[in-house]
Amino acid sequence: xxxxxxxxxxxxxxxxxxxxxxxxxxxxxxxxxxxxxxxxxxxxxxxxxxxxxxxxxxxxxxxxxxxxxxxxxxxxxxxxxxxxxxxxxxxxxxxxxxxxxxxxxxxxxxxxxxxxxxxxxxxxxxxxxxxxxxxxxxxxxxxxxxxxxxxxxxxxxxxxxxxxxxxxxxxxxxxxxxxxxxxxxxxxxxxxxxxxxxxxxxxxxxxxxxxxxxxxxxxxxxxxxxxxxxxxxxxxxxxxxxxxxxxxxxxxxxxxxxxxxxxxxxxxxxxxxxxxxxxxxxxxxxxxxxxxxxxxxxxxxxxxxxxxxxxxxxxxxxxxxxxxxxxxx
Length: 329
Known about the structure:
It is a single chain. By secondary structure, this protein is of the alpha/beta class. It is 50% helix and 15% strand. The chain has two domains: 3-229 and 318-326, Spore Coat Polysaccharide Biosynthesis Protein SpsA, Chain A (Alpha-Beta Complex); 246-315. The chain has helices at 3-10, 31-47, 68-78, 93-104, 124-133, 151-166, 183-189, 199-205, 229-243, 246-275, 283-315, and strands at 18-24, 56-61, 82-87, 110-113, 138-143, 175-182, 210-215, 322-326. Strand 1, helix 2 and strand 2 (56-61) form a beta-alpha-beta unit.
């Protein structure tokens, strides 16, 4: 670690205050183990002078229906460096993460976000902090490979990232929400007021000097995945429609193409009528109706998705409401 640069950057021999932000939703099976490992990690780095002793771990309870918040309260009493934030209702992973980031930025020089399931290698955060000391305002945790994924998940993940790139959304390949963000980046993020959050797409738009840290993603320690196929599809649609209007342009292309096909079919039908070769039948007519109808419904669905987003944005409802806080001082 380049301690000389860090000392110059923070003044004297002061080290950076690092906060870990962990969104939680029904994580009662794993949260104690997650807390134990993070406490050991943060305490060790603070003792060795790598980070400030004011560094903290913030668990954000996203309206869990199990004992997650109860366990956060118990852990905060056992470990003073553990803080808690409870949202009044389940607002989704991205809003819970944002709530934690916006709370932590008041106290921290940099914030590291990660999931509670221990699939992200917590030791990689040490390398992220080193990159921060070297002048990087944003450090992305990137999976080294997807060998442990099923073939289906690997293919769909690759399709997701390629589709986003094709549609013009700037994302970091094989990066989820395991990242470090400095105070400047967090302040810039706070300027984004949209309700439909997709942080993987917003953060790269912030600019600032950045780099990546590779790590091996492990198996979930306990409990069940909070992202079944249905949620993954919903998240993918959210990402695509939040950062690109190309689907609207594609819909327009399909509409124009259907008009051309209709004109060709009209000319063909008139020519066949004049030539006297028309015969009663429903195949071509039925196929045409189904094709045109399908295209229209597809286009309406895309337009409806964007209109729905506009509807929620114009309401300007709060993205989250904080019900309770623990150890935030």
